[in-house]
Each structure stands twice: as C-alpha cells, then as structure tokens.
Write a sequence for this structure.
C-alpha cells in the first residue's frame, strides 16, 4: 500500500496530487513512530492499526469497495537485524542491473546495493532506486505467494516512500518480515508497482505480514 505510479496522468492532477502528498506524509510519520517504539510487537500493533485506518479513511487510499486489510499475528522469529553485504562482480551470483518498465514513468532503473541473509530463509538482494529521489528498495516473493499473499510479492523496505524500519547502533538494517506489505496494485489495478525480481524470490513461506485482503 504505497504510491508507486498511477496509470493516467489526469489521476494525479489537483486535488488528487495533494491527497497523494498527504498520504506520503502520513506514511513517513507512521514509520517514524514505528522506529521510535522500542518493543517490536508493540510497534507492529501500532503499524497495523494506523495502516488500517489510513486504508479505510484516507482519500488517496487504493482501497476498493468491500476490501479489508488482513495481517498475520506478530512472530518475533521473523525479525532480523542484518548487515547489507556488498556483492562484487566475481560473486557466484552477482547483482545485475534491473529496469522496471512503467507506462506512466517509463523505465525505472534499479542498481544493486548489496544482499542480506535471513538465516534459513535465504538471501535477498537490496536495490537502490537509481533515479530522482533515490532510495533503498527491498521486495520479497516467498512460498506463500498466490495463496495467502500476493502472487507477485510484497515490500519490506522502500525508503523513498518512507517505509524504513531503521538501523541499530552498528549500522545494521532492521528487516522485519512482520512488516511486509502489499503494493498498491493489489488493491487497485490503476497502480503500477515494481515487483520482486528473480533474486528476491525465496522458496520458504513467510506466514507473517500483510496477507491478501478480504474482498480481493
């Protein structure tokens, strides 16, 4: 549930553009509150509550009639604090440039920014949005995709949009799968969303985070 790109330029003309700007401010404020809460489970409960209210009440929400958000219960086993490890050209699985093609924004380029290891779940590539605004982007598609979760994957981090869980005192990134969320295109076909590339698809199921909504 973010503001990736909306099909049709007329959709973002006044007053819609101001609604989207308001939405972004709300998302940034929400994640600031999440980072400020020392207890991850409490932070998650706050996140679920405020996201659900945004989804139902905000004029820029991608919600369609009858849709309701669903979130799995918090499970601390799916919270990781990890280094983003560099990946060099000689790596067994080097990072490739990645281009997302959008009808509204043209080619959106992503550059490899490293890789995180999530214990037995495997590894995920971390990407840098290599265009205006920049930002760290971390999508994932897991074994639950197409069943309990969206078939093309969910997002964990998208710092240009404010979805940033923070870092610890050693500079390691918080990657908490309980905060995995659906892109806006899950709710409204007019939104066009970058989806998880091959390097970010893992076989194990991740039974936490945002699930497919009611009324999908």
């Amino acid at each position: 549930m973010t503001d990736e790109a909306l099909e049709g330029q007329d959709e973002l003309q006044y007053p819609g553009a101001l609604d989207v700007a308001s939405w972004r401010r709300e998302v940034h404020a929400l994640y600031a509150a999440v980072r400020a809460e020392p207890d991850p489970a409490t932070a998650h409960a706050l996140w679920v509550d405020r996201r659900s209210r945004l989804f139902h009440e905000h004029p820029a929400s991608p919600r369609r009639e009858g849709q309701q958000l669903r979130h799995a219960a918090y499970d601390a086993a799916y919270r990781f604090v990890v280094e983003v490890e560099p990946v060099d050209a000689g790596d067994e699985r080097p990072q490739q440039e990645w281009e997302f093609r959008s009808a509204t924004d043209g080619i959106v380029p992503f550059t490899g920014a490293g890789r995180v290891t999530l214990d037995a779940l495997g590894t995920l590539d971390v990407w840098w949005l290599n265009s205006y605004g920049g930002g760290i982007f971390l999508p994932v598609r897991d074994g639950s995709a197409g069943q309990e979760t969206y078939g093309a994957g969910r997002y964990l981090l998208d710092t240009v949009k404010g979805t940033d869980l923070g870092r610890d005192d050693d500079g390691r990134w918080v990657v908490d799968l309980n905060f995995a969320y659906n892109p806006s295109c899950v709710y409204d076909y007019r939104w066009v969303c970058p989806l998880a590339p091959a390097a970010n698809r893992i076989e194990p199921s991740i039974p936490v985070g945002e699930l497919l909504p009611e009324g999908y």
Summary: Residues 8-15 have pLDDT under 50 and may be disordered.
